[in-house]
């Protein structure tokens, strides 16, 4: 694999990787190593589509020392997205009412029934890849292959409600607040994605898994996920 490391000030390195699967695979490995205390000095990790920003404490390690400790992890990264999912221990359940304005039109576009689209959206875990656009907006990767064909809307909406569950290309996402948006709306959730009153405002952190649950299924009930714990070090909600 090809990659390169660039200095980002005197307390951070920016790793440029080939693609999103490699970025997520490396993030998962670094999270596991950090949890085991194997990377002294490593602080926040900020993933994006093909980059990973690593902040470090210069009192505990130098950029050269951190880079040397990363070499074994970088040389054997798995290619599939599932390789990153194996390291994502925390799974956040998201209850969804599939009542989105674009649900029926999108099902027709994909050659699916309404029920088939819902089953494919709820049928696998997503991996929180990176955050951006707005606080609490997280790009969720790893859904069913058929969703790779989902286009953005030709004309974005001027207002998408908070809690809207949406699809665009390889990603699913939940709008954390009312805002303009061009993704296809398939449902809504009562979960609050961003709350400054919580110890950790973002409900979903990059590197975690997400599972959508259909509230219309027989016997389904709303089960809101617990607020995430505060994290003094780890993954930030910013984009790199």
From TrEMBL:
Region described as Disordered: 219-240
Domain Carboxyltransferase: 3-204
Assigned keywords, A-Z: ATP-binding, Hydrolase, Nucleotide-binding
Record InterPro entries: CT_C_D, Cyclophilin-like_dom_sf, PxpB
Pfam family, one: CT_C_D
GO molecular function: ATP binding; hydrolase activity
PANTHER family: 5-OXOPROLINASE SUBUNIT B
Protein name: Allophanate hydrolase
Species, as recorded: Vandammella animalimorsus
């Amino acid at each position: 694999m090809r990659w390169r490391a660039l200095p980002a000030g005197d307390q951070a390195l920016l790793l440029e990787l080939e693609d999103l699967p490699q970025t997520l695979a490396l993030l998962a490995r670094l999270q596991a190593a950090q949890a085991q205390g194997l990377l002294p000095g490593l602080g926040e990790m900020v993933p994006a589509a093909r980059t990973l920003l690593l902040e470090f404490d210069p009192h505990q390690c130098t950029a050269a020392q951190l880079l040397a400790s990363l070499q074994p992890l970088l040389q054997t990264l798995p290619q599939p997205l599932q390789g990153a999912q194996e390291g994502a221990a925390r799974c956040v359940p998201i209850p969804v009412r599939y009542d989105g304005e674009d649900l029926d039109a999108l099902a027709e576009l994909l050659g699916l029934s309404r029920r088939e689209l819902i089953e494919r959206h709820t049928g696998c875990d997503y991996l929180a890849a990176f955050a951006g656009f707005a606080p609490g907006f997280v790009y969720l990767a790893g859904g069913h292959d058929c969703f790779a064909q989902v286009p953005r809307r030709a004309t974005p909406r001027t207002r998408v409600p908070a809690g809207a569950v949406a699809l665009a290309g390889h990603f699913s996402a939940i709008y954390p607040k009312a805002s303009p948006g061009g993704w296809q709306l398939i449902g809504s959730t009562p979960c609050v994605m961003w709350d400054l009153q919580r110890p950790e405002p973002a409900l979903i952190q990059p590197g975690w898994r997400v599972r959508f649950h259909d509230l219309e299924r027989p016997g389904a009930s709303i089960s809101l996920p617990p607020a995430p714990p505060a994290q003094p070090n780890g993954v930030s909600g910013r984009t790199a």
